[in-house]
Amino acid sequence: MLIDYKIEETSKLKTKEIKKISDEISEEEYLEFVSIFRSDDRKSVQAICDRLLKKLEKIHLEDERLKKMNNYENSAYNEGFIYVGGVDEAGRGPLAGPVVAAVVVFDPHTKIRGVNDSKKLSEAKRNELYKEIIEKAKDYGIGIADHKEIDKYNILNATYMAMRRAISNLKKAPDCLLNDAVKIPGVDVKQISIIQGDAKSISIAAASILAKVTRDQMMYEYDELYPGYAFSSNKGYGTSDHYAGIKRLGITPIHRHSFLKNFEY
């Protein structure tokens, strides 16, 4: 317990011992730590205190950001809606593979630090957040429309199909949806379209992460089935390696013919 450290005795501790204490305490104890060790004149100890204060500032800023990201969800709950889901997709632009949609329902005031538009996050961070989202979500659903459906119905309609499938995979039907810049046809509930919603709504941001991680995993598996197109790195997007693979090997069973009409192979 930090309370056991008397201010007048802290100078007897080596810097590495103080550093170890700072590494092991919870963020709720940061200010107490600083109040105890700030009187230590050693620059190394002052640096440890400064580091904790900077971490506290970042935590505060992140918590304020997350509070704002709950505004749409909390407003919907305050209006009387019971089951509010955020919807987003991944994979509208690639030349190969499916489009994947997700919907996530959170309790009011949910906090998941780091949640943001999936495109702004590293793959490692997305994978980390994926697990936390699954754990904290009240409900979630994943929907997929494959390359054949994209070719048959076009990418926009296939995206709507994936979104409707994601919604149908919820354990309970939502009564309000927060969508990233779209209104989904054929879904008879309240829909709120939010421009850049994956950066403004925690449930839309979470849905973007679930959709992206799910689709990326599928493309890793496709890379093993169809080597030579660099699917594991480009995820089906039109990179130079991908185009080179098409020219060398032709198209695969998962390519979108409608996206390659003007490409000679």
Radius of gyration: 24 Å
Across the major sheet, the strand order is 3-2-1-4-5
Instruction: Report the CATH architecture of the largest domain.
Output: 2-Layer Sandwich
Which percent band covers the strand fraction? Answer: 5-15%
Please trace the helix and strand order, writing H or E for each element: HHHHEEHEHHEEHHH
What would CATH call the class of the largest domain?
Alpha Beta
Return the structural class. Answer: alpha/beta
CATH topology of the largest domain: Nucleotidyltransferase, domain 5
CATH homologous superfamily descriptor of the largest domain:
Ribonuclease H-like superfamily/Ribonuclease H
User: What percent of the residues sit in helical stretches (DSSP H or I)?
Assistant: 40-55%
Oligomer type: single chain
The overall average pLDDT, rounded, is 95
Write down how many β-strands occur, each being a DSSP E stretch of 2 or more residues. Answer: 5
The largest sheet is: 5 strands, mixed
Outline, from the CA principal axes? Answer: flat
> End-to-end distance, in Å?
68 Å
Q: List low-pLDDT spans.
A: none
